[in-house]
Amino acid sequence: MGGRLARVFRTFNVESRARREISKEKPTPAPRHPSSRLDQLADHPEIQEDIYRKDDRLLTLLKDVYVESRDPPVQVKGGAGEHLPCRQEEKRLTKLGHLGDLDVKKVPKGKISIVEALTLLNNHKLHPQIWTAEKIAVEYSLELKEVNSLLEFFIPFAVQEFPKETKKAI
Predict the structure, then answer these.
(1) 163-167 long-range contacts, CB within 8 A, separation 24+
(2) Tell me, what's a Pfam family for it (predicted)?
(3) What is the mean pLDDT of residues 65-80?
(4) Which candidate, 163, 154, 159, places its Cα nearest to that of 136?
């Protein structure tokens, strides 16, 4: 409804409004600054002569300029560009379980591999009196605070098998 009403007002007396706009005088453009004209060079040939003339005094001064540059001494890289570690990390052999082929062989001190993490979590879950946080920290070269956090926040999954008669009930 509103669109129809708006269209009526838009199309009302369109021809006379268009003729009125066309018959108006065109506005005169603002005057341009004299230095913005490109044809100024054509009016003054002496300016073009100054542009293309060589100045001997400036040319001799330019010839007197001498720039001397030196490259920094080239450093020879030994060993075909291999980067050696700045600090040697102490490594320890891993305590490999039944997944020894899948695990890494050496681990930096203060870290454990995934297989070791699963093993120590399972050992602590099965025998918490034997595998205490202190014993795990000594055994795997870890900090006690990190071992306590590991035992608190990570719990291994427990596999539960249901007898066949309870499977039918489910």
Answers:
(1) none
(2) UPF0240
(3) 75
(4) 154
Full-model pTM: 0.40
Instruction: Return the higher-pLDDT residue of 23 and 79.
Output: 23
What SS3 string covers 142-164?
CCHHHHHHHHHHCCCCCCCCCCH
Domain ranges in the chain are 91-153
Q: 164 phi and psi, to 5 degrees? A: -65, -35
Note whether 55 and 63 are within 8 A (CB). no
In Å, what is the CA distance from 113 to each residue of 94, 99, 105?
8, 11, 9
**pLDDT tens-place string over residues 93-117:** 666 555 555 556 777 888 888 888 8
Per-residue tokens: 146: 């990190």
Query: With b meaning 16 or more CB within 10 Å and e meaning fewer, what string describes 84-106?
Result: eeeeeeeeeebbbeeeeeebeee
The two three-digit tokens of residue 131, written as one number: 């595998």
Q: pLDDT class for 48, splitting at 50, 70, 90?
A: confident
The answer to whether 34 and 43 have CB atoms below 8 angstroms apart is no
What number is the average pLDDT over the span 78-102? 59
